[in-house]
Amino acid sequence: MSDELLVVRCQLGERGAFAELVRTWHGVVERYVGRMLDGPDDDVVQEVWLAVFRGLPRLRRPERFAPWLFTIARRAIVNRLRDEYARPERVPGPEGRGPEGRDEADDVLDREVVAEALGALPVREREVLMLFYLEDLSVEACAQVCGVPVGTVKSRLGRARGLMRAELARKGYGA
Q1: Is pTM, for the whole model, over 0.70?
Q2: C-alpha distances in Å from residue 130, one per residue of 38, 40, 52, 106
Q3: Is 156 within 8 Å of 128 (Cβ atoms)?
Q4: Could you report the per-residue pLDDT of 118-157, keeping only the tens digit for each?
Q5: 31, 147, 165, 170: which has the highest count of C-beta atoms within 10 A?
Q6: Which DSSP symbol is given to 41?
């Protein structure tokens, strides 16, 4: 069933539809919150779902549920990271190159290294990388979620890629 139909069913008061919506999106919300906060935070995830439950009746464009959900999640994360978001953005360091492909055991280690490198990025850059690459949101949807112009998302993506390359190179994954 499409998210749009689930949202409409929720707006009509069907409790089972909300439970299904939560089942469908809970892992995504948990992953996003966990990566942005460098670890799981059930309180923030619950805060997100409470805000979704309260706000769903007022969502005018059910087809835009995903960006709306990420906007709510981002707001909860920003509340938790307010101090970090208040700091000025950093300028990227030197760029390196990513790791070469290897066998499956190395791939598991690579995922850990990438997760650590992602965690080392400034929060704004980490956020756009996750939304764009891991959650498959468009640049326009990322801009809506982050509350910034499309050009800002593009520059943050470019900066994030450079920082990610540099971090991976620092860990010995550069060529």
Answers
A1: no
A2: 13, 15, 21, 22
A3: yes
A4: 888 999 999 999 899 888 899 999 999 999 999 999 999 9
A5: 165
A6: -
